[in-house]
Design goal:
CATH class of the largest domain: Alpha Beta
CATH architecture of the largest domain: 3-Layer(aba) Sandwich
Strand content: 5-15%
CATH topology of the largest domain: Rossmann fold
Strand order of the largest sheet: 3-2-1-4-5-6
CATH superfamily of the largest domain: NAD(P)-binding Rossmann-like Domain
Distance between the termini: 34 Å
Helix content: 40-55%
Length: 294
């Protein structure tokens, strides 16, 4: 049975989708001994067996119902367009008092799809760790992926103080700083700092003549690194957060138009001020972590 107080150690934690993020959750749980059992659920037996061999999970199954049937906590790490159906189905088979969270980088669409559809004995706390990589698969899992990273929780009207506290305790135990904001604000933020940058990186790669790419040095490679991310996963993210991405795109287009006008009018002073403003903002951001991804 799920524990009635905030656990120092969870009983069974089930990870649905044992890729980079899910695998890193599992690896952190195993290495920090935060759960008695870590159960992986997925579709590809070979990947699950590899995850088990690498110490990412203790056991695995391809049956969602079986995998969540004794879980204190379920962490859903599938692509954003699959999260709501996965949570809906998993909740039918979860024990009384169990908790479910996710890692999706969009929140409004998931919350809306699940509104009023979950059984009362299960609580869903929407989450999003601001960490990751353009790499994929449990083979790239890192136990310290969430260390000193931020995790955003976007509480719903159905969340209880206890449910939020349990979700916060879980991510904190993995080394993360946990913050809360509305789903609407989260999606606007994610569009600006993650989703639009991915679009810009992809467009820069596609706009550059192929014969010149052989000359690309660190500046181009660093700027376009995220374009190497999984195309299917990112297409789902961009579609799910369409409105917020379009708003960020409009704002970027206005800034690009400002630059174009400075260039066309030969306004050297304005151009230097524009670049200096960007430089100042970027310096304030700091060096960050090369493995960050939202």
């Amino acid at each position: 049975m799920p524990q009635t107080s905030l656990p120092d150690k969870w009983g069974a934690v089930t990870i649905v989708g044992v890729g980079l993020i899910g695998g890193s959750v599992g690896k952190a749980l195993c290495q920090r001994q935060l759960a008695e059992r870590v159960i992986g659920v997925g579709r590809q037996q070979e990947e699950l067996e590899l995850a088990q061999q690498q110490g990412v999970i203790h056991e695995w199954t391809c049956s969602l119902a079986q995998g969540v049937s004794r879980a204190d906590l379920v962490v859903v790490c599938v692509p954003v367009d699959q999260i709501a159906p996965c949570i809906s189905e998993a909740a039918k088979h979860m024990p009384l008092g169990s908790l479910i969270t996710d890692v999706g980088s969009t929140k409004r669409n998931i919350i809306s799809a699940l509104e009023g559809k979950l059984p009362r004995h299960v609580e869903y706390v929407p989450g999003h760790p601001l960490a990751g990589s353009e790499k994929s698969g449990a083979r790239h899992a890192q136990a310290d992926l969430f260390h000193q990273r931020r995790v955003i929780l976007t509480p719903t009207a159905q969340n209880t103080p206890r449910g939020l506290a349990r979700a916060r305790a879980f991510w904190t135990a993995l080394g993360a700083e946990v913050l809360e904001m509305s789903a609407e604000e989260h999606d606007r933020m994610a569009a600006a700092i993650s989703h639009l940058p991915h679009v810009l990186a992809a467009s820069l790669v596609l706009a550059t003549p192929a014969q010149w790419l052989v000359f690309a040095a660190s500046g181009f490679r660093d700027t376009t690194r995220v374009a190497a991310g999984d195309a299917q996963l990112w297409a789902a993210i961009l579609q799910a957060n369409c409105d917020a991405v379009q708003q960020s795109l409009h704002e970027w287009e206005r800034e690009l138009l400002r630059f174009r006008r400075l260039l066309e009018t030969g306004d050297g002073r304005g151009l230097r001020e524009w670049l200096a403003q960007a430089q100042q903002v970027r310096h304030a951001l700091g060096s960050g972590n090369p493995s960050d991804r939202t």
